[in-house]
Design goal:
There is one protein chain. The chain is an alpha/beta fold and 180 residues long. It contains seven helices and seven strands; from the N terminus they run H-E-H-E-E-H-H-E-H-E-H-E-E-H.
Length: 180
């Protein structure tokens, strides 16, 4: 629900928020809207020979697609023939080429193969924007999060600086009245 509110698909029950004028949101939802009849390189590049990665910077489309572990003949596979993890990679590749500075990742580790998971874990800390991650994968959260916005009991939110393991330890301490 939180991510759906941020992208404007739902309205909050109470209060309001405003997205800044310079914020460009990129959403990786659990549902991936991909054209099943397109080939991998077509879907990722939008049928373009080059992919713009920012002002004044572009690379050949097939080189960009290869960076997401679709090399050679794998770029010719139809979307409908891909595994869930491969579809997730296609979706991530499409999103990242759009130049978002706020990534909203809804269960991004679902269906990922180990290599892609490691690539995502390496890439997120270097992302030059902000990423909001909703995940049940505690190990992933430990490796990529620097801050936690915890939705806790009775609709309360709690902002914490640190990874998920540190947040959980702090939450246990707070709930026990400060005693370890």
């Amino acid at each position: 629900t939180f991510l759906r509110i941020l992208v404007g698909d739902e309205v909050p029950d109470k209060g309001s928020f405003k997205i800044g004028s310079s914020v460009k949101i990129g959403l990786v939802a659990q549902t991936r809207n991909l054209n099943a009849d397109n080939r991998v390189w077509e879907e990722i590049t939008g049928f373009k020979d080059t992919v713009a990665l920012g002002p004044g910077h572009s690379i050949p489309g097939r080189v960009y697609v290869a960076q997401f572990n679709f090399k050679g003949a794998a770029q010719q596979k139809k979307i409908k023939d891909l595994s869930g993890g491969e579809r997730n990679r296609v979706h991530l590749a499409k999103l990242l080429r759009q130049g978002a500075n706020l990534l909203l990742l809804d269960e991004p580790t679902n269906d990922l193969d180990v290599d892609t998971l490691r690539t995502l874990e390496t890439a997120l800390p270097d992302f030059p924007g902000c990423a909001v991650v909703v995940s049940h994968d505690r190990y992933f959260l430990d490796r990529v999060c620097t801050h936690i916005l915890g939705f806790e009991e009775n609709g309360k939110t709690y902002f914490f600086s640190g990874n998920y393991a540190m947040y959980e330890a702090d939450k246990r301490r707070r709930l026990s009245g400060g005693h370890n």
